[in-house]
Design a protein that fits this description.
Blueprint lengths: L1 H15 L22 E3 L5 E3 L7 E7 L8 H12 L4 E7 L11 H12 L4 E2 L12 H7 L17 E4 L5 E5 L8 H12 L1
Parallel strand pairs: 3-4, 4-5
Antiparallel strand pairs: 1-2, 3-6, 6-7
């Protein structure tokens, strides 16, 4: 009888224990929506959860090493260095979608960016930003149905997408907008000030 009562008591206790939900009274942290909801590959092949950028202002740029706009790497590095201590990040996504202007391997791309332009901002692995093999992040960025006003296919290398501290897309700048262009600099500074 004692054994039966003990088993009954254990059964009742196990039913009254709350499921493990972290700290009592708090909900688990929600994964961000929008452009920071994706995981991509870094230049060295490891996974990068873009939610790590939440709380920062971020500029996503599709880049190429053999493009007329390639010297924008220098301006991107200058913009990054001028604002990184304020919570700004630049994330480059090398892509070979336009004129075969990014033919290199990830290692070759990194060597080129660091030796020619002293790039210190985050460099991801080579991706596709257009066509049937477009990566999910760029499917979202270019979608006209994703709930943001910045959709539309990318026309060329060095298209820039600006993400606010809340992780939402707040701006798009076409390739001919240089990193030092007053419109882009003002948008970055305004986002950092929020």
């Amino acid at each position: 009888m004692f054994k039966t009562a003990s088993l009954l008591l254990l059964s009742v206790l196990s039913m009254t224990v709350a499921p493990d939900s972290g700290t009592a009274g708090t909900a688990p942290a929600a994964k961000p929506s929008g452009p920071l909801a994706f995981t991509v590959k870094a230049n060295d092949g490891h996974d990068v959860d873009l939610s790590q950028y939440k709380g920062k202002v971020v500029l996503f740029v599709n880049t190429a090493s053999k493009c007329g706009y390639t010297p924008q790497y220098k301006g991107l590095e200058e913009l990054y260095k001028a604002n990184k201590d304020k919570g700004f990040a630049v994330v480059a996504f090398p892509a070979d979608n336009f004129g075969h202007q990014e033919p290199g391997t990830n290692e070759e791309i990194k060597t080129f960016c660091t030796s020619k332009y002293d790039v210190t901002f985050d460099l991801m692995g080579k991706v596709s930003v257009k066509g049937s093999d477009k990566v999910p992040l760029y499917q979202y960025l270019t979608s006209s149905e994703a709930g943001h006003a910045f959709g539309g296919e990318i026309k060329w290398n060095f298209t820039k997408f600006l993400i606010g501290k809340d992780g939402q897309l707040i701006g798009r700048f076409e390739p001919n907008t240089a990193p030092g262009d007053p419109a882009l600099v003002t948008a970055v500074e305004a986002a950092l000030a929020k």
